[in-house]
C-alpha cells in the first residue's frame, strides 16, 4: 500500500472540508507511550537491564495491540469537536556511580488521546530497567531485571509484555534481562535480548515500533525490533531507543573494577490517527505530519497537539 502524498499540517481554515452536512465518522488510532530508561553499570556492580517499551494500543484493521491484546474499538469523531493528543516522552537511563551503586533514571511517560464523547485512551509509559539491587519498574512493557537482586517489571494488559529476568551473582560479568516489548517479553530470543515490537500498516507501509531495550552482559545484547536500544559495556552509555517508536533504552555493564557507564534513554512515543479523507477536517495544532494512503488521511503526531473533528 504505497504512500501517495504528504503535506504539512493545515491551518485552522482547513481544506474546505468543514461544510455543513459532514456527520460523525470513524477513525482508527495507534497510540504508543515513551520507552523506559535502561539500567546502569558501576564498578563491581555488574549489568543493567533493558528499558521496557511504551504501551502500544491499536484499533487499525485487525492488527493487535501490545501484550497479546486484540484490536481495540475504533473511535467515532464528531465535527467541530476538539480532540487532544499528548505524546509521551522518553524515560532517562540510570546513572553509574563510582561507589558501586546506581541512581536516577525514569520510566517513559504516557501518551493520551481525549475529547468530548470518547473514552480517554491512555498508553502507559515503558518501565525503567533494574540494575544492582534495584527492581525494574512495571510499565506499558516492563523493564528488564539487573544481573543481581530486585525483580523484572511486569507489562500492562493489552499494551505490552514483561521484562526479562537477570541471572548470575554480584560483580562483573552477570547477565541482565531484556526490556519487554509490545510483541514479546524480554529474553524471548535469548537471555538479555529486548522483546520485539509489533508492525503496523496504519501509515500505509509496515513499520515496527515498541521494541524493548537490550540487557547487558558480555557481550551486550541487542534491543528488540521496533526501536529498542542495544546494550553496551562501560564506559559507553547504553543505546537510545529510537524516537517515536516507544523503544526502551539499552542497559550498560561494568565488567571490571574501573569503568562505569549509564543506561540509555528510551524513545519518545507517537500518536497516529487514520480516517476517510472525505471526513478529514484539516484542522490541527501541534504541527503533525499529514499524509494520504488510498482513500484515507493519516495524521502522525510526534509531539502534543489537537485535532478538530
Can you give keywords for this protein?
mainly beta, disordered N terminus, seven-stranded antiparallel sheet, single chain, 309 residues
What characteristic shape results from the CA principal axes?
elongated
Query: From the helix content, strand content and strand pairing, which structural class follows?
Result: mainly beta
Q: Helix proportion of residues, in percent?
A: under 10%
The largest sheet is: 7 strands, antiparallel
Strand content: 15-25%
How much is the average pLDDT? 89
Uncertain spans: 1-20
Q: Gyration radius, to the nearest Å?
A: 20 Å
User: How many domains in all?
Assistant: 2
Number-wise, the strands total 19
Annotation field: number of helices: 0
Distance between the termini: 26 Å
Query: H/E series, N to C?
Result: EEEEEEEEEEEEEEEEEEE
Could you give a quick summary of the protein structure above?
The chain is mainly β. It has strands spanning 5-7, 25-32, 46-47, 56-58, 75-77, 82-86, 95-96, 102-103, 111-115, 121-123, 198-200, 207-209, 232-233, 252-254, 270-276, 283-285, 289-293, 296-301, 305-308.
Task: Walk me through what this model shows.
This protein is mostly beta strands. It has strands at residues 5-7, 25-32, 46-47, 56-58, 75-77, 82-86, 95-96, 102-103, 111-115, 121-123, 198-200, 207-209, 232-233, 252-254, 270-276, 283-285, 289-293, 296-301, 305-308. The strands form five sheets. Strands 1, 2, 4, 5, 15, 17 and 18 form a seven-stranded antiparallel beta sheet that branches. A five-stranded antiparallel beta sheet has the order 10-9-6-19-16, with no helix packed on it. Strands 3-14-13 form a three-stranded mixed beta sheet, with no helix packed on it. A hairpin with a 5-residue loop joins strand 9 (111-115) and strand 10 (121-123). It folds into two domains: 5-27 and 270-308, no CATH class; 30-67 and 83-269, no CATH class. The chain is elongated and about 70 Å long. It has no helices and 19 strands.
Amino acid at each position: 500500500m504505497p504512500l501517495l502524498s504528504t503535506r504539512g499540517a493545515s491551518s485552522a481554515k482547513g481544506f474546505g472540508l468543514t461544510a455543513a452536512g459532514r456527520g460523525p465518522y470513524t477513525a482508527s488510532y495507534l497510540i504508543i507511550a515513551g520507552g523506559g530508561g535502561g539500567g546502569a553499570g558501576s564498578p563491581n556492580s555488574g549489568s543493567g537491564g533493558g528499558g521496557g517499551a511504551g504501551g502500544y494500543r491499536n484499533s487499525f484493521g485487525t492488527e493487535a495491540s501490545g501484550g497479546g491484546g486484540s484490536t481495540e474499538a475504533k473511535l467515532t469523531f464528531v465535527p467541530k469537536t476538539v480532540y487532544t493528543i499528548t505524546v509521551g516522552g522518553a524515560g532517562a537511563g540510570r546513572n553509574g556511580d563510582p561507589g558501586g551503586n546506581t541512581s536516577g533514571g525514569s520510566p517513559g511517560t504516557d501518551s493520551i488521546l481525549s475529547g468530548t464523547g470518547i473514552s480517554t485512551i491512555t498508553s502507559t509509559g515503558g518501565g525503567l530497567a533494574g540494575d544492582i539491587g534495584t527492581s525494574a519498574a512495571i510499565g506499558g512493557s516492563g523493564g528488564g531485571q539487573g544481573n543481581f537482586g530486585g525483580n523484572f517489571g511486569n507489562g500492562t494488559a493489552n499494551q505490552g509484555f514483561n521484562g526479562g529476568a537477570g541471572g548470575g551473582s554480584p560483580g562483573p560479568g552477570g547477565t541482565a534481562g531484556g526490556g519487554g516489548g509490545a510483541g514479546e517479553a524480554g529474553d524471548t530470543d535469548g537471555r538479555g535480548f529486548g522483546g520485539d515490537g509489533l508492525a503496523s500498516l496504519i501509515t500505509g507501509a509496515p513499520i515496527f515500533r515498541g521494541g524493548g531495550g537490550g540487557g547487558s552482559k558480555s557481550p551486550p545484547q541487542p534491543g528488540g525490533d521496533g526501536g529498542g536500544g542495544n546494550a553496551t559495556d562501560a564506559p559507553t552509555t547504553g543505546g537510545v531507543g529510537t524516537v517515536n517508536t516507544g523503544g526502551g533504552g539499552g542497559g550498560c555493564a561494568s565488567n571490571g573494577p574501573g569503568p562505569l557507564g549509564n543506561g540509555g534513554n528510551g524513545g519518545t512515543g507517537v500518536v497516529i490517527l487514520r480516517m476517510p479523507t472525505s471526513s478529514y477536517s484539516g484542522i490541527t495544532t501541534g504541527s503533525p505530519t499529514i499524509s494520504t494512503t488510498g482513500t484515507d488521511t493519516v495524521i502522525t503526531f510526534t509531539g502534543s497537539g489537537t485535532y478538530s473533528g
